[in-house]
């Protein structure tokens, strides 16, 4: 698809701030960062089973914390080893979102978090899904993940294990509870703010494209 100034949308996207062109990344599959991302994805059903089946919260915590560590490690390794790839650019945010949504649903089923919190975060993902369709319609790749979104993901992925610890009856649970909800509230606020910024960026692209069409610059 051709963008408003006659260049391809892929070329425009690679120049625009906040846009990453995945087509410019190497087409690699067998890399260490990709292997870590796949392991994270495979950990999702195991985590859910541990949390909702035998309610083995200790082992569920181990899986969740390992996921958080691998989330940090795969990005670092991709840069250190120069192993960035198109597949990795898709797997990493997909794993993050899947863990957040699945963990939220599991915690809601266990009545550890309120349903309104689940509705807020799942609603955010649905809105961003619509924004991705809008970008695709105009020939743009997904926008680059904002640093606020990364910070929010970090906070939420660490809030969930602490929420599980806070469910206990020990002294540790009592100490953990305020930290758990502080991480959850801040993580949710930043996650929603990052979503708002994403929507604003997409709407800006749509305005520019429509203005270009109105000015007759699109062939």
Structural summary, described in words:
The longest helix has 44 residues, at 171-214. With 219 residues, the protein is mainly α. It is globular and about 70 Å long. It starts with 8 loop residues before the first helix and ends in a 5-residue tail after the last helix. It has seven helices and no strands.
What are the key terms here?
0% strand; 219 residues; mainly alpha; 7 helices
The percentage of residues in β strands lies in under 5%
Mean pLDDT: 79
Distance from N terminus to C terminus (CA atoms, Å) equals 11 Å
Question: How does the overall form come out from the CA principal axes?
Answer: globular
| Class based on secondary structure composition and strand pairing | mainly alpha
Work out the number of β strands. Answer: 0
Low-confidence stretches: 1-20
Element-by-element helix/strand order: HHHHHHH
Helical content class:
over 70%
Largest sheet: none
| Rg for CA atoms | 20 Å
Counting DSSP H or I runs of 4 or more residues, the number of helices is 7
Indicate the topology.
Blueprint (H helix, E strand, L loop, with lengths): L8 H7 L16 H21 L4 H24 L5 H24 L5 H23 L9 H20 L4 H44 L5
Summarize, please.
By secondary structure, the chain is mainly α.
């Amino acid at each position: 698809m051709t963008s408003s100034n006659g260049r391809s949308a892929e070329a425009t996207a690679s120049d625009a701030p906040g846009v990453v062109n995945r087509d410019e990344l190497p087409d690699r599959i067998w890399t260490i960062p990709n292997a870590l991302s796949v392991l994270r994805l495979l950990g999702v059903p195991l985590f859910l089973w541990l949390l909702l089946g035998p309610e083995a919260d200790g082992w569920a915590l181990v899986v969740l914390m390992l996921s958080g560590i691998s989330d940090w490690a795969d990005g670092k390794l991709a840069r250190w080893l120069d192993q960035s790839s198109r597949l990795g650019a898709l797997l990493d945010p997909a794993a993050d979102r899947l863990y957040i949504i699945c963990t939220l649903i599991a915690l809601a089923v266990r009545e550890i978090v309120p349903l309104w919190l689940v509705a807020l975060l799942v609603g955010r993902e649905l809105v961003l899904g619509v924004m991705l369709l809008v970008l695709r319609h105009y020939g743009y790749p997904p926008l680059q993940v904002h640093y606020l979104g990364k910070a929010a993901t970090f906070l939420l992925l660490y809030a969930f294990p602490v929420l599980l610890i806070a469910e206990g009856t020990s002294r540790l649970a009592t100490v953990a509870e305020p930290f758990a909800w502080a991480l959850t509230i801040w993580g949710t606020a930043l996650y929603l703010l990052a979503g708002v910024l994403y929507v604003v960026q997409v709407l800006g692209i749509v305005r520019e494209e429509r203005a270009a069409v109105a000015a007759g610059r699109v062939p």
